[in-house]
Protein 1
Amino acid sequence: MKTLIVGARGFIGSHLKEYMANFGEVVAVSLSSLQGGDRKQRLTQLFASIQPDICVNCSGAAHVPSSFSNPLNDFEMNTASVYEMLAAIRQESPGTRFVHLSSAAVYGSPVTLPIAESAPLNPVSPYGYHKLAAEQFCQEFSSIYGIKTVSLRIFSAYGPGLRKQLLWDTYCKWRDSTEVKLFGTGDETRDFIFIDDVCEAIRAVVERAGFGGESINIASGTAISIREIVTLLLKELGGAHQADFVGQKREGDPDSWCANITTLKALGFENRTSLIDGIKATAQWLKEQE
């Protein structure tokens, strides 16, 4: 099996590159290497030359606040590029199965928990809308052109190598100050999944999913409060630091997320990394950054 990973320099892409090498040939590219000149033409040439069995799109911008300040860039990275990949596959490599990494942001602030794939889609940020539009492109190319696609709604992935978002922000404030001040109340909940389990989930999808344009939740299926996970991390980092939540909510941040992963489990996925073990591994990597 030949796997093409687009976005191989990013957090998920870099881990997936190493993981998928255990199961066949891997070709890894970054989206930035395809920028400049005609990206559409470069993508067309890429798929014509490689003819991958699987393409996993790990590329894109993954920063909700930036999608408010620069929505056009977010659209280019998360939506336009996906359409161009699908068009290139249709033209040059129609047998390629396309795995698009979407986001739980397509749900917005859910009415009920846990969130099933059939839940209403109501994004609360440009990022969420752009991820949803990319999913719709995948559905379009599947239903109209017969391209095999699947979109994976990633919840809160974490682990060594992630230099952004909650745990990285907590570490930087622990490292640089005696105070760890964070947005929100701390009572908000998220569904965290360790990066090794994300890779396992992607493999389960590649091996068993229908690739009919469907969307699948990628998560642990367990909710934890922001306060709890930050407290666990600070304990592993050491020192007398405690988190101080300022109460101010960031634009685009939902209150609570927890995924229904029945569909993913039906593909044979099992969450293997406990939160404690995942936080210990993450803390160890963070301390090595000093």
Note: The two ends are 39 Å apart (CA to CA).
Protein 2
Amino acid sequence: MNAPTNHLLVIDTPIGIVFNSRDDAWEFYKDYAKNNGFSVCRSTTRHDEHDNVKEQGFCCTRGGYNVDDSGGLHNIFWCDSTSRSDYACFNDVIAFDTTYKGNIYGWPLMPIVGVNHHNQTIVFGVAILADETANTFEWVLREFLEAMGKKPLVSVVTDGDRAMQRAIKTVFPLARHRLCSWHLSRNATANIGDKSFISAFSRCMSSWWTIEEFDREWRSVVQHFNVEDHPWVVKKD
């Protein structure tokens, strides 16, 4: 339902401004976005029986891109205002990897995600990369940090990519970095291969134990399967 013209229209903004109309809000947001380094567009939906398009609000986006020596698109990062708002509340742990390469260009797609208080996955940003070098990952993470108001992340979960690990140490030196359980299980399968060991290993990862309880159980598993001297088990990095 359209608001009567003699009523004030309250737009849900982070700074609580009240506008007389959507057009006034639109003009303000165009200038605000330009001055703060992100873009803004009208979001619309088909609304009535005559298939007329009715304006529903605004969509704010922010990001950056790299080009190669020939001027062609090289890397791109994108997020929106919802992503930034979610990150401000739920930046305790983020996760990302580049294992998905299903786009038509065959380039790595890098979603950066977290979890909210309903245990739902939320998207903080997305990048499409031309390569998976440390320099490229550093560029993405710096763009991400800038887009999120330079608020550093607390913990990050990724795969075992060495270039990614180096980039995280450079851009977020204080963040706690851990490998995700899926990649750990895959590594255990590739290095040990015993299904019974994989089951015991998974139980150690997923159980709610204290540090002392975990150490005790892990030593028991290692001794039971006689892998105390296996290079993958004793590896520290």
Note: Helices lie at 22-36, 81-89, 134-147, 162-171, 181-191, 195-206, 211-224, 231-234.
